[in-house]
Each structure stands twice: as structure tokens, then as C-alpha cells.
């Protein structure tokens, strides 16, 4: 490609609404252009990156035996009513009425459409397993679209769906995708982690997120310094406390703590470590009667160490709390504890509640908690002596850095990540809702066992930039760079030698299959270099009149601090060596 | 590709709603699957065809200097309000409101979005010309979607838009596209015609349609048997009548024609040729006053030969009728002619009308028309003697087969076509509406001169099938076949020799870059052959045990009546020769 035949449109300033560096740099580099909130045109420079991402994804999906199709962007609501998602999905689902006032949606994913294909086409177990995928435009009407392609409304996703005759088959299909995803993310040339994720109501351990590591990532990801264990914060566990509960060493004492309603304030006031305090969280669950009205409400007191945070996913899996809990109201709290939040604790309740202690709290002695009286806390609290053992002991907290890894090997560390892929065992959730069956070997209809597998094709370039940039611009990995190499001739219009040398190198590299761009725009060197450093093309060859007179040109990788002089006669071979071309 | 790893899903019966052969065959061959009226999933077999169409289009567009981008599917209504199309486009434009009740549309084309890019990015004449294109999902909410991919609601279009500093530049850009389109359609391997089309209000001759020839096509296209002249029916002209008007030979006579209200009926009654009759069409134009109310109405009488039809586009270009005419109402007709339609003519009017005679009518003598009296016609009518010369003589009719070509070379012939491409000079229609300007060399802002260029990517395969099929199924041209060649091993499960031979040929052809599929499903020969004939793969090699014992395999092109025996040892070379691989 020659720059004069391409569209290069760089900006000095990022738009005011660009909060993150990938949004700023993609806009400044002319890769994306905002059409509406969360809706972007992929400009030629950006589209080249997206196409390279697509090509890698497509190759590895095909290699893994998945078959590409393309489902409609505009889908009939009737399918989405079958699974109930038309009703339950909320305003994220973009709804349309056509000219005949029939309801449609713009696809956010395609479980319904693909399950509809399966129930028509996959009639016999002999046709299974099958994995259908598409790389197609999606829309999610985010309440607050932001960060450019990171949290856009319209985006491109690769979504794959596997269909198997039984759970063992579905799990094998899942593992094939897990391997394919590692192959895909290895090829992108990014630092990433596959982390275990929560699989929600379906249960089991078959859910992994693929996270590109970046300090600006929205997700906290947890990994062990001593093993391969990795999970997202929702899912991550630490090893249970190893040491038994110490004996009581202090007397139970009511201590005035006026105005100190947080564990941190109390610890500071009493000059004790924060981890000696216990925080009280009050939840409630409602039992519905036959008419669907709230029949009975159960109040729960959750006890966590002062330096720990509740993990809602873990709490939602406890018996009695299964995904339907809510925070208690202030009147409910006053009714049970006799005081308002800030001074709550498990002792001297007005009405009984169910007490759930985090595993760490259950092995504490001489701890501090609220006295259920405004402006007072209790110190020297001890299980058994001052209050009964908790109704339930469980892991209900987020892990923190330094926790022991759950496999006993090493400590947990935490880093930030950007989710760009997610693989998920679905079981029969969709096939049952849509009555999608095949005839099994015994002649009986059975529901498909399904899995779904997504990659955020347009989010990936943004994540790559969050990980790879400097103050001058983007630094693309070779695999997904818009161009692999740029030839920058200095003074091309004044020097026939420069022009001829640049053209010759260009032709040689094109012939060698290198994705090269020759900047023949005639820009000044400073502006030209700034453009390409902003755009982030990883390899650059600069050809100037002075160098050529000494038989030399310059090579510089985008990460190099300074250029390397290379004999002009050797530059093609040198570049091919650097690129492995 | 091996069939066992692909998705082959053929049907014996076409769906009841499939009226045309391409819809029937694409559905039966498992290439598309209906999700909703006019909304289809492109199944793996169909997607391969679409991807090949896309690749050819992309290569030739890039070669012609166009640059690919991708504009959003969901576009904000505010842009569409700038050009007025949000208000004027009617229910074909699919409208959406997002969660904040802001209006959006699903793009039917992207003139607005691309002009918005141009007015932001193309600031100087130095950046021009530019041509931006995309291959992207579109939606038009057709009142009556039908014919599968021929008239769907969701479809894929390649749409390109050129931006130039002046009209000469825009016309040069148009010609570059005209050549690129010929290169694209040549590569598809279809019989097609580029035909002149009407360019509407913009004027000029810069509008061409690319029509795939098919007897089932919706469009009538006109071409000369003696030259390269071709146009669609709206646009096509014939040479003006060469012979002068003959002198009058008959007396004007009022003849009873009871109940004969059409030219055909009258010609039959009087035993004269239909082309000796003249039909009267009554139009009206309304002049609006300052308040926008109808001020004055002008009634027009159009005279056409009895065997000719009016061409509304041509009529709409006449002075005084410019695109705003309507058919007159019955009261208006009675007011001017004294009788109701069926017996109208230009003689003995009650109130004056403007008379427009088609060029052919103007040179007639002794003709027949209505007498402006129910159940009576006039015969022996002659211009000058019986009525004044017409107010206007013009070409206002559709051409018919046998008309002389307008370039004087050959006769016109008519065939049916399917429009799959359209190129169009737009001028400043969109750039003025959206105030899209660049700074010209003189430092002044000027409006872009634009062109737009479309190809119906998903309609093209349907058109190819309408042109290329037989009673057994589709016959793909090599360039866009889902697979170029299929290897059909007979009795692969029983014969190691067949299996080894098929596998060996498969590997050889893959290595030679042939897009080959090996049917390893183990189907019976009859079912296997029927599948591939339905799917329309153009080249087939059949390998059977009996043939192999004689050292032979069979090659058959999809159009061949019978297979050709080829020495097994030579089959790779034979196939490569046939494919030019």
C-alpha cells in the first residue's frame, strides 16, 4: 500500500470525551470515528487491525472444526420470547418494530437464532457434535457507553455455539474451544490470562474469561504466584484458614466510639489493626406465597473481617440465599438490631437473625464489632463465650493479595485485565427453553447440550493498545498491526536516489509478502515520524539522502530508543530477518 | 475441507413461499435459512459463496484506489434529518428509538454517514479525490419481501462513495468505478450487461445499472443488435422516425364502436392494425399559490400509438410536467372532453388542453382515435386538416423490440435482467444538504462533488442461480462456487483403495490451492451425487473400486451430460488443467 492511496487522518488532540488511552489514541490515529454515543465508524486504518483480528480468529476456529455462518443482525422477537429474554433483558436489548408493527431486536448475541437452526437442521445424533460461529455486528444499548471500542454499543463479536448429544460431549467441545482460544490469544501477541469465571446458575467449572492484562482494565483478576491457578475476582477463592481459632484473651467490653461508624474509623480510634475488626452486613430474603406476594422475610447477618469485602456471587450460592437476596432496609435493620447501620453486631439482637460468618471471621478471637447501640462498639468478642457459633461458616469474601492460593501452591496476586473472550458451558438452558431436540441412538428426542464462546473482535484492538502504548502513541504487536512496516523516505521529492531506493525496497517487501506501507505523501520528516509513531506501526525503515550517500538506511522498531544503521544493500534481508518473513 | 467437518444440510422440498428458482435452490441446498420474512441466516455453504463475491469486489475496489472502511449499522437520525431522508423515506427506512428515546435508523445506505466523515476529515483539495467503501449489513423494510435473497429486507451491500473537488474530477472517479465494475462482473463469470439508467433530477448520463441476464429477471433491459447501446427500459430511446408524415388519404369519419373502449378492441372491430390507432392519456399538473394551496390546474392530453406504452420517466422530464404530474380525475376528464375515459381524443374538446404527441404519432396519417362521445371513434384523422399540430412532440413511450437503435446501428432487442450493481453520479446533492465542504486551492470552501456505487453482495448469488441452473440444481461459475471441486469416493468405507486414492487426490489438490471438498460422509452414491448437483459444485471427481481396478477415475463438469474416464495416475494433472490451477 502507498500512503497516497490510503486514508491517513491523524489528529493532534483527542476528543474531550475520550477518557482512556486506547480511545484517545485510536481517535487520534484516525482508526475510529464517532458517529453517535458508543457507535463508531471503523476507518480504513482501524479496519485493517480488525480484519487481522478476524482472520486469526477465523483460522483458529476453522482449525478447531467450527463452521462459519452469519446470522441476521435484525432478529424476530418471537424467538426471544421463547427463551424469555425479550421480557427479561431490559433496555440493553435494542427493540424495533417493523412497518407491520411486529417486534424485532438488534442481536446482542445469537443463542436464540442458532438454537432455532439446530432444532431444524440437526435432527440426528449422527450429525453431532457441531459448532457454528459467526463474526458479525452486535448491539447492546449500554446505559453509559464510554471508552471508545471498550464499551461501545455497536461492536463486532465472534460468537460460537456448540451442540452435543450429552454433557460429556459438550465438555469435550468446551475443551476444544479452550485450546483454540489459547491458540488465538497466543497469536495476537498480547500478554493475557485465561481465568476461571463463575458459571452462574448452570454450575460446574466450565467458564473461563480471557483477559488482556492492562493496568487500566476494568476487571480484577487473581492468580497464584506459585501455580497456574487464575480466576476473576467473582470466582477466586483462597485456601481456608489453616490455623485453628485461638482461645479468648480479652474480656468482652463495651467501648464508646462516638461518630465512628466504619471499621477503619474504629480501628484507628482504638489503635488496633483493621483485621481485628468485624463488619456486619444485613441482607434479607423474601419467601413468596401462592399468590406471588411476599409471605415471609428472613433477615441475615453476614460477618466479614474489617479489611475484607463481600463477594456477592459467593453469597448468592449459599443455601437459603440462592441468588435472590437483597440488602435489608433501614426499618428492617432497626427492627432486628435496635439501632441503625454503623454500630451493628451479632450480640444483643432485638429479633433473631441468621448469622453467616466468613471463614476468616470464624477463626478470630478477641474481635471488635458494633454493640447494636449508636456510638458504641464491643471489644474482646469471642465465639462460644459471648455469642453462639454462627449458623453458617462459608467463604463469602473477595480474596486479597497475599491470600494463600486455593491449591496450596503460592500466594494470590491481583492484576487488572480487560475481558476480550469468554467461553461458557450452557447445558440445556436454551435447548430446553426452545424445545430444541435431536433423535438420539435410542430413537428418543433429547435436548442439545450447548456451549457458547465469544471474542470481542472490536474490543481486542482497544485492549491491545491499553497494554501497548507510550507517550508517542500505539505500539502494535506484529500480528494485528494495521501495517507491519512503514518505509519513510526523507526528501523523496528532492532526491531521485531516495525515491528509487524507497520504491525498490517497497517492491521487494511486497514480493516477500510483507504488509508494508510506503509513505509517499511528501510530509516533513517530523510530521511523518509522529504520524507513524502515533499509528503504532511496529517496524520502520527510514531512507534519507545523507545516509544513502554512505550506503546506509535506518531501521527502528517502535520500541527501540534509537535507529539502527543498516547497509542499504542488506536492508531487505535485514527486515525479512526481523520479521521472520 | 472434508464434508464430515462441514455443515451439509440439503432438503428434498423447497419451502412453500419460495416462488423463484434461486430461492428454492438456495434453501434446498442449505445455503440460506429463513429467520423471518426477508431475513435470512447465511448458512456455511451459502456464506462461502458470499465470501467469494466479497473477495472479488474487495480486490477490484482496492485495485481501483478505493479504501475500505466500515460504517455503523445503527445510525443516528440527526444525520438523516439533515438530508431530509428521515422524513421522506417512508416505511422502508427501519426506525429505532434507543433507551433514551433518541431516534436511530438501521442503514439502508450510508450517504449521510460517509458525507459526515468527509466534512470532518477531507479538509483540503489536496486530500481529494477519495473513494471510501464498505461491505456491510443493510436493511430495507420492503412492503412485500420475497424471492429469498433477491428482495430481502436484511442484505449485504458493497457501497462506495467518491469525493472530488469538481465535476470533472467526479466524472473521472465515476469512470474509474465504471471500469472497476466491469472488471468485477467479468470475474464473476456471469452473463451481464451494463445499461444506461436514468439519473433522475441530477441529470446527465452518469448512471449505469449492472444487470445479470436471466429470463426471470424483474427488469426489462434494452440493447442494440448492431452496437454496444444498452439501457434499462426507463431510459432506453429509439431513433426518431425517419420517414416524413404521409399525406391524408381518408376522410374524417365518425364510426360507431359500441362498448369498444380500448385501442385493441377498436382495431379488431374495424379490422385495422393496432398501430393505426392512437390512445389518449390525460394527465394534470397543479400550480401551487403562495399559501401552498392548489392555484391552477393544467390538463394534458398525451397521444401514443395504440401498440405503445407511456414512459413515465420521459414524460416527467417534459417542460411543464417536470416530475410533478398526476393522472387526471374522471370529473376533470369529463369537464374537458365531455365524456368519460374509453372514447377520448384530441378533436372536439369542451375545454382546451395541452396536447403532447409521441414522435411516432406526430408522423401518422389516417389514424383512429376516440370521438369524445361514448361508443364512437373517429377514423381517417389527419394532423393539420382535422386538428392543429400538437403543442409538443416528444419521445414519451417505452421502446419495443424492433425499434431502430438510437445510434442508428441495428435494432433494439429486449431481455430480462436482475439488477446487481448501480453506479451513480450524485453531484452536490448530499454535500449541499449537509454543508460538507473542503478548502479549494483558492482558499474558499466548496461542496464535494460525489458519486455512489453499489453492488448487492447477497443478491448476486441469487442472480447467478437464476442464470445458471437446471432441473437437478445450481450450476456455479468457478469464481463464486462454494467449492470448486468435490471428490466423491464410492464405497469409501468398504475399500481401502478408494479411501487412499481419494485422500491422496484431496491432499494433492489442497497443495495446488484448489478449493476442494472431500465427501467423506459415507452417503450412498445416488444421494451423494444428488447433493452435489443440487449444491452446484462445478467440478466433480468420482472414485470407485471398479474403476480403480482398471486404473481409472471419473471427472464430470456440472454441465457435462456424462463423466469422462481419466487414468487415476493423471487425475491431478487433468483437474489442474481444467481449472487452470
UniProtKB/TrEMBL annotation, chains A, B:
Keywords: Aminoacyl-tRNA synthetase, ATP-binding, Cytoplasm, Ligase, Nucleotide-binding, Protein biosynthesis. Pfam families: HGTP_anticodon, tRNA-synt_2b, tRNA_edit. It is found in: Cytoplasm. Its EC number is 6.1.1.15. InterPro entries: aa-tRNA-synt_IIb, aa-tRNA-synth_II, aa-tRNA-synth_II/BPL/LPL, Anticodon-bd, Anticodon-bd_dom_sf, Pro-tRNA-ligase_IIa, Pro-tRNA-synth_IIa_bac-type, Pro-tRNA-Synthase_IIa_type1. Its main location: cytoplasm. Residues 33-477 form the Aminoacyl-transfer RNA synthetases class-II family profile domain. Belongs to the class-II aminoacyl-tRNA synthetase family. ProS type 1 subfamily. Catalyzes the attachment of proline to tRNA(Pro) in a two-step reaction: proline is first activated by ATP to form Pro-AMP and then transferred to the acceptor end of tRNA(Pro). As ProRS can inadvertently accommodate and process non-cognate amino acids such as alanine and cysteine, to avoid such errors it has two additional distinct editing activities against alanine. One activity is designated as 'pretransfer' editing and involves the tRNA(Pro)-independent hydrolysis of activated Ala-AMP. This is Proline--tRNA ligase. The gene is proS.
Amino acid at each position: 500500500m502507498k500512503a497516497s492511496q490510503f486514508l491517513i487522518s491523524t489528529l493532534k488532540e483527542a476528543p474531550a470525551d475520550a477518557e482512556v488511552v486506547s480511545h484517545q489514541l485510536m481517535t487520534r490515529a484516525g482508526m475510529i470515528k464517532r458517529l453517535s454515543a458508543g457507535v463508531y465508524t471503523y476507518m480504513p486504518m482501524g479496519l485493517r487491525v480488525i480484519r487481522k483480528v478476524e482472520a486469526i480468529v477465523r483460522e483458529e476456529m476453522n482449525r478447531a472444526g467450527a463452521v462459519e455462518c452469519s446470522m441476521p443482525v435484525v432478529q424476530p422477537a418471537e424467538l426471544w420470547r421463547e427463551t424469555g429474554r425479550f421480557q427479561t433483558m431490559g433496555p440493553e436489548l435494542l427493540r424495533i418494530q417493523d412497518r407491520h408493527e411486529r417486534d424485532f431486536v438488534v442481536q446482542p448475541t445469537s443463542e436464540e437464532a442458532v438454537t432455532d437452526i439446530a432444532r431444524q437442521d440437526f435432527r440426528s445424533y449422527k450429525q453431532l457434535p457441531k459448532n457454528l460461529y459467526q463474526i458479525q455486528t452486535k448491539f447492546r444499548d449500554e446505559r453509559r457507553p464510554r471508552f471508545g471500542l471498550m464499551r461501545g454499543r455497536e461492536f463486532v463479536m465472534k460468537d460460537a455455539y456448540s451442540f452435543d448429544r450429552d454433557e460429556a460431549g459438550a465438555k469435550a467441545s468446551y475443551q476444544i474451544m479452550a485450546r483454540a482460544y489459547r491458540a488465538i490469544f497466543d497469536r495476537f501477541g498480547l500478554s493475557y490470562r485465561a481465568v476461571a469465571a463463575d458459571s452462574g446458575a448452570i454450575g460446574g467449572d466450565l467458564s473461563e474469561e480471557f483477559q488482556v492484562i492492562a493496568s487500566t482494565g476494568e476487571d480484577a483478576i487473581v492468580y497464584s504466584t506459585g501455580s497456574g491457578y487464575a480466576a476473576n475476582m467473582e470466582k477466586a477463592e483462597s485456601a481456608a484458614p489453616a490455623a485453628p481459632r485461638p482461645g479468648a484473651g480479652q474480656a468482652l467490653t463495651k467501648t464508646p466510639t462516638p461518630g465512628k461508624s466504619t471499621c477503619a474509623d474504629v480501628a484507628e480510634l482504638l489503635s488496633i489493626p483493621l483485621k481485628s475488626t468485624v463488619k456486619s452486613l444485613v441482607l434479607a430474603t423474601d419467601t413468596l406465597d401462592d399468590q406471588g406476594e411476599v409471605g415471609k422475610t428472613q433477615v441475615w447477618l453476614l460477618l466479614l473481617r474489617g479489611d475484607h469485602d463481600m463477594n456477592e456471587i459467593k453469597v448468592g450460592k449459599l443455601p437459603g440465599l440462592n441468588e435472590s437476596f437483597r440488602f435489608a432496609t433501614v426499618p428492617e435493620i432497626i427492627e432486628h438490631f435496635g439501632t441503625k447501620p454503623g454500630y451493628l453486631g451479632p450480640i444483643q439482637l432485638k429479633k433473631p437473625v441468621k448469622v453467616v460468618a466468613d471463614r476468616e471471621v470464624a477463626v478470630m478471637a478477641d474481635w471488635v464489632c458494633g454493640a447494636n447501640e449508636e456510638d458504641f462498639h464491643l471489644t474482646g468478642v469471642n465465639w462460644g463465650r459471648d455469642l453462639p457459633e454462627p449458623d453458617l461458616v462459608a467463604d463469602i469474601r473477595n480474596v486479597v493479595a497475599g491470600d494463600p492460593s486455593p491449591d496450596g501452591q503460592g500466594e494470590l496476586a491481583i492484576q487488572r485485565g480487560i475481558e476480550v473472550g469468554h467461553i461458557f458451558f450452557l447445558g440445556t438452558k436454551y435447548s430446553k427453553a426452545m424445545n430444541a431436540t435431536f433423535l438420539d441412538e435410542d430413537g428418543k428426542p433429547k435436548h442439545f447440550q450447548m456451549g457458547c464462546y465469544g471474542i470481542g473482535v472490536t474490543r481486542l484492538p482497544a485492549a491491545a493498545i491499553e497494554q501497548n502504548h507510550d507517550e508517542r502513541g500505539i505500539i502494535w504487536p506484529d500480528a494485528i498491526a494495521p501495517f507491519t512496516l512503514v518505509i519513510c523516505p526523507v526528501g523523496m521529492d528532492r532526491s531521485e536516489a531516495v525515491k528509487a531506493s524507497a520504491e525498490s525496497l517497497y517492491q521487494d517487501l511486497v514480493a516477500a509478502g510483507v504488509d508494508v506501507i510506503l509513505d509517499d505523501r511528501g510530509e516533513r520528516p517530523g510530521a511523518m515520524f509522529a504520524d507513524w509513531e502515533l499509528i503504532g506501526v511496529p517496524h520502520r525503515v527510514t531512507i534519507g539522502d545523507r545516509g544513502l550517500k554512505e550506503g546506509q538506511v535506518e531501521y527502528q522498531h517502535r520500541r527501540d530508543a534509537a535507529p539502527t544503521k543498516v547497509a542499504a544493500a542488506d536492508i531487505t534481508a535485514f527486515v525479512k530477518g526481523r520479521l521472520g518473513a
